[in-house]
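Fold it.
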Amino acid sequence: MDSDNDMDKDGRNLLLYLESCATDFGGLIDSRRMNKEDFETAEEWNQHGFISFGRVCAADICKMKRNGHPCTHWVALSEEAWQMAHQERRARATRVEAKRTWKKTSEDSK
């Protein structure tokens, strides 16, 4: 990865999902949230060192669950991936804020 300009929408969404897994679930991935293309992208990113990605040891799969579903894969982000995920989170927040349909109390005209 050279810049987030090289990453399409699906790639950015995948990166943010993997960042959430790394942050909130100790790197465990709920594979039901990934499709074939996501797995292919994750494998490619792993080969390039953008992320570390792999399978959970077979003996531990039954112990590692998210929402009652066994976790078969894990992820760790590189420094570059962390930086890109942070940039994308901020960009996404800006896009969502621009589409806001509700008012803050400070914006309410009395």
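The longest strand covers residues 51-55.
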